[in-house]
Amino acid sequence: MIKAILIFNNHGKPRLSKFYEHYNEDTEQQIIRETFHLVSKRDENVCNFLEGGMLIGGSDYKLIYRHYATLYFVFCVDSSESELGILDLIQVFVETLDKCFENVCELDLIFHVDKVHNILAEMVMGGMVLETNMNEIITQVDAQNKMEKSEFFPFFSFSLSLYRRLSFSLPGRTGRHRQKNVSYCHV
Amino acid sequence: MALKIVKGSIDRMFDKNLQDLVRGIRNHKEDEAKYISTCIDEIKQELKQDNIAVKANAVCKLTYLQMLGYDVSWAAFNIVEVMSSSKFTYKRIGYLAASQCFHENTDVIMLTTNQIRKDLSSPNQYDTGVALTGLSCFVTPDLARDLANDIMTLMSHTKPYIRKKAVLIMYKVFLKYPESLRPAFPRLKEKLEDPDPGVQSAAVNVICELARRNPKNYLSLAPLFFKLMTSSTNNWVLIKIIKLFGALTPLEPRLGKKLIEPLTNLIHSTSAMSLLYECVNTVIAGQYSCSVGHIKSHLLCVQKLRILIEDSDQNLKYLGLLAMSKILKTHPKSVQSHKDLILQCLDDKDESIRLRALDLLYGMVSKKNLMEIVKKLMIHVDKAEGTTYRDELLTKIIDICSQSNYQYITNFEWYISILVELTRLEGTRHGHLIASQMLDVAIRVKAIRVFAVAQMATLLDNAHLLTGNMQRNGICEVLYAAAWICGEFSEHLENPVQTLEAMLRPKVATLPGHIQAVYVQNAAKLFATILKNQEGNTDSTAAQETSQMMIDRLPLFVQSANLEVQERASCILQLVKYIQKLQQKDVEVAEEVSALFAGELNPVAPKAQKKVPVPEGLDLDAWINEPPSESESEDEQPKAIFTKEEPKHSRPRHTEVDEKELARRREARKQEQANNPFYIKASPSSQKVYQEAPGVEHIPVVQIDLSVPLKVPGLPMSDQYVKLEEERRQKERAEKKKKEKKKRKEKRSGRGKKHDSGPESEEDITPAHVVDIVTEEMPEVGMHLSDDVAQEDQNHLPVRVKICICMFCLCRPLADSEKLPVRSHRAAGAPKSSAEDGEAENATPQEPKKKSSKEKRDKKKDKERDRKVRLRCWKHFPPSGHKSDSRSTQSEGRTVVTFLVFPLPRKVCDIQGNLQDGSQVVVSVIFENKSDSFLKSMEFNVLDSLNSKLQRPEGSGPHDGLTVPFQLPPGVSNEARFVFTVQSIVMPQKLKGTLTFIVKNEDSSTHEKLDFKLHFTCTSYLITTPCYSDAFAKLLESGDLKSSSVRLEGVNMPFHHLLARICFHHHFSVVERIDSCASMYSRSIQGHHVCLLVKTSGQTVSIDAKCDEPTLLGNVLDEIKQTFSQC
């Protein structure tokens, strides 16, 4: 089972948090802080597994994380999950985000956290892996987005796309860099 | 209408949407909280509007704020409103918000049941999908119960997208509403074979999770999963299935066997590391039982793991180590061979990897490398920054060193100095751990006390360094140990006055209460020692000064807020005042004061008390006096608390006992201890604590103190010991070679003996100090005797196994005079001398007994070899120099079996416990593993003859073997005893037997068989019995004895050698010797008398013999003849 999925940036600012077990808001923030603390002090070329989050899990749980440019993707999983499998799942997740956002960067996640949630919901459901095939995920996400659009008249969908275009001109957008190295495929 | 909608949309355009909120927050970095609170106010306004679009927008923003840590549960009802919107867009926003912030205690959840049911049955698959996703996060028992049926229907939905979600969510439903599992299970099982791989994967996923909780219920699915495993190509599914098998194999051994092949195939064929790793893991999990097939796959696993660990990818390295630690539990040997690799990982920059390697270290240490490994760890301790990792290192160091009773520590001075070095760690939580180690070592290793006391005194002196930050600092716990050790073993202190002064410093009052209490109590002990030291002096001022110091300093503790400290301090203060009065009258008080703390503390095995049998007629539950009244029990109480808290310190206090009484009691106690087999005695002969090993005295404490610059002055660095230890070992090795000869002579005395501590490793390294509970001598008998006796027919064996069989005839009770303590038996040098200079005949009646009971006779199955053995035995008596060569000439790859026959003093028989009658013989077998492999599952079996039978446990058949109750790592020997019932002893006989065992090394494990023969000679039934000449004469006169005689030609040896040989090999004792004529006597275990008259003239020896059993006599004479024909 996956207990939590966290995305935060290099400064520990949460970009997405998904807990598959209930905690109150304060505990959630504490977990995010603690996880960030554990993960951020690790070098780039050390292993991606981490034991010993005090707040979340216990001895059976591991933090499995990946660091892409400015973002950390952290999965907290128990021993029923394959460590390398989860690493690949993170990779699939990031690649899917990349496809859905057309060259994803931190800003996409900042402004469209709801969309990220929707994509994630097609991959992991209630802490269990639902789908690992990227094309299948994208098909379903696209189909739902299309449905969303069709529910509004053209004016509104125009406003959405207008917004998207505006967001391109935001400062910081130019600094998009993403770890393109996707050769790391265990599965 | 249309206009209204347009207007609503335009309104919306001017509301803040999520993106505006995010941007706003980013623009208000300084007053983020304030900005967000205004936003929340706006959201509250928006939620009040009727427009669902506005509400959905507000909820969407709330979801974001929830992620930032704001409580949004107040909007739960609005979320439910948005969820029930007919538009997918809003519905999705609602469900997302619900999944983020709803939980079991959210009361509005019960309003959602119908809405969710409606969504589940919606014609739009995405409505259903969104509802399922949301439900998976906030399903409650009520929801699960109400919706289980609907979800079950969805499991057969036409769309695979819905099916897989429905299958997955069933797991959550099962968790919340377990009753649903039974009805839903058949359908779930069906889904394992769903045409859609996604659904199939989901079903596998759910069953794996279920099986993790209760594997037993899912064993029946194993064939189905087996089929899936061999057919599926989806690695995700395969991983899950293989993980599931990992959980199932421990329950069903056959499954493990069956899995080996497909798993091995997968390991060979897959390119996916994750799959390979899981396969390896499952193979390991199935390896608790070890058969030949397993060994092959096991080897493959270890190989693959090594590849993983060697990989440059840190993730693979980590996982490799993780899996290794699983192997360590079942097959420590195969991990040990990768020691180099694991030690390398200790230096890895990655903490996760280092921690994993640390875990593995535990099984990796040996006497040889312990110091080196700990040194490495100490370096890491110094470098480590995070306290968590440092604490982990600390506990590991202590774990490694103290494992199995300090088995691997050869130098305790080194260990103490390691512990002292560890006290320098600031802010560690493990002060108490270090303290308990110090106490344990100081108490149990007597030889180390002098050193430990010196170290502890230094620690006390520098206490201020340890207690820099008293409150948070767990390290001050070590002062507890330091104070106690200094007090208890104060006789070893070099400068007790100084230590006493250090213990009574005002700063001590800032220590935690329990430590102060120990300080006070031990100050009193120190005081007693100082008085004793100073009593002899003519000048009594020094003693009085000490008393004065106590009186000056103790009031500080009397005022302590801690009751324990206060109570002890005031008690001791009054005592000291009284002592001072006596001192002023010039009364000698030292003796009586030290009587307060008299008695030595000895380590006793934790379970020893249980083993002491309750004497007959003693009822422990009965009151020994009238039950105490209320008031009395109150008086009792403080005492009980005291003993409870300080169990180690409680001791009888004889304050008012006079000298004589004291001495009497002490004597009585000693007596009692001596008689108590469970009390480890303090006498040097039995305790061998400080083995005067060469090299130990070369560790000069003072020298180290001077040479090492230290943070805490006067503390030796443990590093020094590594070097010193090297030297010591080298010396020892050299010494050992020299000693070899000597040892051979001594070995006769080293008869197999009961061990308190199981087998001792035969490693070359001997410890410099010995932990108390480890007893000293090894059963060495026979190992030397049998050295170059080989069994050619066992040549094919890849392993060398040496079995030495000692036979104890335990039948006849021995006279009181014969009940010699086993130890003194062994220690005596008698056999040497008797054989060397043939004093046997001159010895007192008792003496030859001693000798002969130690050494009787050895027999080989093959006559040719038998001769050799005897020759060897003989040659061992004089200090001849060929001991070492006989060792080296021992050919490789052979198996050696030697039998030794030993009658034992009765005492030992008693220990055996199972022998009451004269027809039992105990055969003691020493198994020594001379191979490099691990031997296990040894079974000892003997083909019974009509006359002799191996005693087997009740219920086993006459052909069953006996399991040898231990395993043998390489180089280790151990002793097992087997009882035989013998009916007639008049004839010699041979019993055929086999020893089966499993040879295990890294790459394989094989069943091996070793045939041997047990030779019960008639001589072996004889017991050396002393006989006085008058009794001997009477016996001969009685006329009950039949006579027989034998003549030996060509015996070319001095007469006394000849006699010694008969005594030694055939268990006779010399009754009388006159010139070249001697009378000898022996008795069989069944009470037959055997008398010999041995005469010699030139090279001819004639033996006239008489015995009440002619057959026995004939056989004994034959054996004697054989002995001499072989010289």
TrEMBL record, chain A:
One of its GO terms (biological process) is Golgi to vacuole transport. Residues 1-147 form the AP complex mu/sigma subunit domain. It comes from the Eukaryota. Keywords: Cytoplasmic vesicle, Golgi apparatus, Membrane, Protein transport, Transport. One of its GO terms (cellular component) is cytoplasmic vesicle membrane. Its main location: membrane. The keyword Oxidoreductase does not apply. Pfam families: Clat_adaptor_s. InterPro entries: AP_complex_ssu, AP_mu_sigma_su, APS3, Clathrin_sm-chain_CS, Longin-like_dom_sf. The keyword Protein transport applies. Coiled coil: none annotated. It is a peripheral membrane protein. It is found in: Cytoplasmic vesicle membrane; Golgi apparatus. Part of the AP-3 complex, an adaptor-related complex which is not clathrin-associated. The complex is associated with the Golgi region as well as more peripheral structures. It facilitates the budding of vesicles from the Golgi membrane and may be directly involved in trafficking to lysosomes. In concert with the BLOC-1 complex, AP-3 is required to target cargos into vesicles assembled at cell bodies for delivery into neurites and nerve terminals. Belongs to the adaptor complexes small subunit family. This is AP complex subunit sigma. The lineage of its organism: Eukaryota, Metazoa, Chordata, Craniata, Vertebrata. The gene is AP3S1.
UniProtKB/TrEMBL annotation, chain B:
It is found in: Cytoplasm; Golgi apparatus membrane. It is a peripheral membrane protein. GO terms for cellular component: AP-3 adaptor complex; axon cytoplasm; endosome membrane; Golgi membrane; presynaptic endosome; terminal bouton. GO terms for biological process: anterograde synaptic vesicle transport; Golgi to vacuole transport; neurotransmitter receptor transport, postsynaptic endosome to lysosome; protein targeting to vacuole; synaptic vesicle budding from endosome; synaptic vesicle membrane organization. InterPro entries: AP3_complex_dsu, AP3D_dom_metazoa, ARM-like, ARM-type_fold, Clathrin/coatomer_adapt-like_N, Mu_AP3. Residues 738-754, 851-860 have a biased composition (Basic residues). Residues 636-672, 723-737 have a biased composition (Basic and acidic residues). Keywords: Acetylation, Coiled coil, Cytoplasm, Golgi apparatus, Membrane, Phosphoprotein, Protein transport, Repeat, Transport. Residues 620-683, 723-768, 820-890 are annotated as: Disordered. It holds the Pfam family AP3D1. Transmembrane segments: none annotated. Residues 657-798 form the AP-3 complex subunit delta domain. Part of the AP-3 complex, an adaptor-related complex which is not clathrin-associated. The complex is associated with the Golgi region as well as more peripheral structures. It facilitates the budding of vesicles from the Golgi membrane and may be directly involved in trafficking to lysosomes. Involved in process of CD8+ T-cell and NK cell degranulation. In concert with the BLOC-1 complex, AP-3 is required to target cargos into vesicles assembled at cell bodies for delivery into neurites and nerve terminals. Belongs to the adaptor complexes large subunit family. This is AP-3 complex subunit delta-1. It comes from Astatotilapia calliptera.
